[in-house]
User: Which sequence fits this backbone?
């Protein structure tokens, strides 16, 4: 049975933006501070972290229903982490183009069958980052090299074991947890199609269909994608470019 959309209030945004200030910008992340007034009268400051690259990951399954995991040291956590192949797509890459490249580079395999699996916001109280997750099957060896600053290990773990490791907190990477639970939900009969417009974004480059978060950074004149026209701060902007239709995986392959 198709689910009905969750309700949204008539006036969902309670904030008036008084000013925005860029605090930090690197090739990977950027931070701004907004001065805002709530409609109940309170004024304050809200820090927002943005990412230049698109978060994407792939749950790659082999013929024995084993999950391909990548092990690496995660500097912010100061701990070793096992997770699905994932990475950041460049501004000129769609999530699909980016994760195909990452699968070759990190795991030295490619997949013959791909499909969108899940979409989510990684930490919506502090960042506008979005994550695009794919399911990939029919794996075959491929040539790929990790980046110079990566030391990676590879492991193939049964899917059921991965679920257990999520529950015990051993697999804690956010993209990995969501991907595993999304596939388990499908297998349990909880199958719901992605919104059509959202499903298209798995195969679109950011400039073709910017998210509200990316549009806001572009409005500030800071987005690495570049923008010819920057509306004034506080004015909402929307992409005027027509969204391309959803392509098949084969048609989207380079």
Assistant:
């Amino acid at each position: 049975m198709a689910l009905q959309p969750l309700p949204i209030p008539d006036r969902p945004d309670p904030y008036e933006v008084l000013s925005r200030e860029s605090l930090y910008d690197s090739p990977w992340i950027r931070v701004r501070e907004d001065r805002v007034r709530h409609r109940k009268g309170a004024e304050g400051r809200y820090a927002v972290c943005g990412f230049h690259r698109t978060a994407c990951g792939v749950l790659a399954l082999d013929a024995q229903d084993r999950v391909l995991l990548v092990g690496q040291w995660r500097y912010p956590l100061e701990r070793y982490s096992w997770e699905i192949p994932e990475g950041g797509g460049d501004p000129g890459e769609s999530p699909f183009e980016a994760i195909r490249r990452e699968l070759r580079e990190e795991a030295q395999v490619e997949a013959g069958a791909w499909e969108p699996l899940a979409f989510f916001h990684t930490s919506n109280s502090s960042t506008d980052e979005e994550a695009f997750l794919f399911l990939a099957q029919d794996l075959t060896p491929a040539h790929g090299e990790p980046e110079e600053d990566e030391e990676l290990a590879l492991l193939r773990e049964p899917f059921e074991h991965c679920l257990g490791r999520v529950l015990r907190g051993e697999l804690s990477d956010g993209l990995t947890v969501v991907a595993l639970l999304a596939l388990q939900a499908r297998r349990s009969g909880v199958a719901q199609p992605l919104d059509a417009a959202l499903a298209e974004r798995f195969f679109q480059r950011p400039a073709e269909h910017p998210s509200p978060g990316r549009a806001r950074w572009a409005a500030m004149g800071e987005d690495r994608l570049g923008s010819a026209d920057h509306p004034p701060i506080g004015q909402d902007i929307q992409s005027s470019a027509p969204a391309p239709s959803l392509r098949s995986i084969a048609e989207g392959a380079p």
About this structure: The two ends are 36 Å apart (CA to CA).
